[in-house]
Amino acid sequence: MTLYTEKALSILKNSGLRITKPRRLVIELLAKTSRSLSAYEIKEALDQDGHKVDTVSIYRIIDCLYENHLIHRVLTTGKVMKCKLENEHECELNQSDHCHHFLICQQCGSVEEVHCPGIDSVVSAMEEASGYRINRHYLEFSGICPQCNLV
Amino acid sequence: MTLYTEKALSILKNSGLRITKPRRLVIELLAKTSRSLSAYEIKEALDQDGHKVDTVSIYRIIDCLYENHLIHRVLTTGKVMKCKLENEHECELNQSDHCHHFLICQQCGSVEEVHCPGIDSVVSAMEEASGYRINRHYLEFSGICPQCNLV
DNA sequence: TTCACTGCAAACCTTTTGCAATTCT
DNA sequence: AGAATTGCAAAAGGTTTGCAGTGAA
Fold this sequence. Notes:
Two copies of one chain form a homodimer.
Chain A: H1 3-14, H2 21-32, H3 39-48, H4 55-67, E1 71-74, E2 79-82, E3 101-105, E4 111-114, H5 119-130, E5 133-144, H6 146-150
Helix pairs in contact in A: 1-2, 3-4
Chain A binds a DNA duplex through residues 16-23, 38-40, 52-57, 59-61, 64.
């Protein structure tokens, strides 16, 4: 069982939510997938493993995971992605206002969640210059990942 | 006729496209709207002005305007927004790989297209650190605009 | 006049809702 | 046992396609 699976299940349990078979299946799929997935892609992947889960349930499970900060919604792709787990620190999964940035490979579709050095001061400067009270920002990079660059 | 309308129409014409009534109506609506709009919102707004334009046509017009770099797609809202026109410079509308950043007010929904100082070096640093060849980035800020802050 | 563009009908895909049946705890 | 969750059916949205008719150049 991966760290993600383990953590995710325990967070659900601690929130008084049930560990059902469909939920576990979706979590395990997310755990082993380094791309973002749509509801339908999740359904297809589970089907191919011989697990029939209704599309409606997928949507509800996605909502549940999102509310519990176990997945991100990637704007560029319109799909969802597991939250990154730091081995060292106590997991930041359950924090809401932490900011998340993504590197998305246009070729293989892999998504990497990254910390982006320097972005905070850019946001502050923008806040200052614009007069907006900025409470959230979305930053996503599209390109070609190192692996695909080799080919 | 606003600068946006004028420029947009001339760009269409120069591309060999026709200036039809529905296209002009959509362009004029975008010109006077400082929010992002969905296809359905565009249809509703036109209807209320007494102009019946089919939803299908709205979609096709949106595609056309997007291909000609006359509108942006705002990821946070999932809607479209007119491209900003600089009075001073020769218009940058028709450039494709120019990067665009948005300030979105969570209260009134207004969207402002901004240049973001400092972001280029952040992108370069990320490119360096990650090994990705980054060719595009998306940066959107959510918050409360100066006007809404006063209330 | 001609061809691009629109409108209409219908299909398609995605997401949501209500309710009865299931299954975790 | 009891309550949360799932599956099913159906509806509600959003978007696309094909084709005949319209209208801009």
